């Protein structure tokens, strides 16, 4: 009975999916055509260092028609919960990356803001709390680096078409 329902469902839905006009953005795209000649970083020193060492974008200084990137990283923290004594027990760490894509002529041709956050538990042990914050910031940055790489490539490819 369940297999028949699935078959009916697929039979009804499949024609709509085929004729909806969907096509992937990055289908048949040469990622080598995404040329970046300069990346400027600003913001928190530790997060900037993490971004520089883990960002997988090739810089091509010889290309005249390459794009430049300006990336700014902001981090903030806010109290989520407090105990009855008024001491913070949970904190939200928020990291925001703003980027601009600049053409070879100096015009801003794209910009976007990416952010991610995590809620962490705060204890009375400062060294443990600092280590947990560091690890969560790295986890957030890893996620944001993937988003940033895709967003930059997608915007540049859409500009080239």
Describe it:
There is one protein chain. This protein has 161 residues and is an alpha+beta fold. Helices cover 39% and strands 33% of the residues. The chain has helices spanning 2-18, 45-54, 126-160; strands at 36-43, 67-82, 88-102, 108-121. Strands 1-2-3-4 form a four-stranded mixed sheet, with helices on one face. Helix 2 (45-54) packs across helix 3 (126-160). The protein is flat.
Form type: flat
Major sheet summary line: 4 strands, mixed
* Spatial order of strands in the largest sheet: 1-2-3-4
Output mean pLDDT: 85
The tally of beta strands, per DSSP, is 4
Task: Tell me the Rg in angstroms.
Answer: 22 Å
Distance between the termini: 48 Å
Alpha-beta classification: alpha+beta
Approximately how much helix is present in the residues? Answer: 25-40%
Low-confidence stretches: none
The number of helical elements comes to 3
- Percent of sequence in beta strands: 25-35%
Order of helices and strands: HEHEEEH
């Amino acid at each position: 009975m369940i297999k028949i329902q699935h078959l009916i469902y697929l039979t009804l839905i499949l024609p709509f999916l085929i004729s909806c006009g969907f096509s992937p953005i990055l289908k048949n795209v040469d990622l080598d055509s995404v040329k970046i000649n300069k990346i400027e970083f600003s913001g928190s020193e530790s997060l900037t260092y993490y971004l520089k060492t883990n960002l997988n974008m090739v810089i091509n200084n010889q290309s005249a028609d390459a794009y430049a990137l300006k990336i700014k990283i902001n981090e903030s923290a806010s109290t989520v919960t407090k105990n009855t004594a008024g001491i913070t027990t949970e904190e939200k760490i928020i990291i925001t990356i703003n980027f601009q894509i600049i053409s070879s002529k100096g015009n801003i041709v794209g910009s976007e803001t990416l952010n991610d956050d995590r809620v962490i538990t705060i204890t009375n042990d400062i060294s443990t709390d600092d280590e947990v914050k560091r690890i969560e910031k790295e986890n957030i940055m890893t996620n944001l680096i993937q988003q940033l790489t895709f967003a930059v490539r997608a915007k540049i490819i859409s500009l080239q078409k």
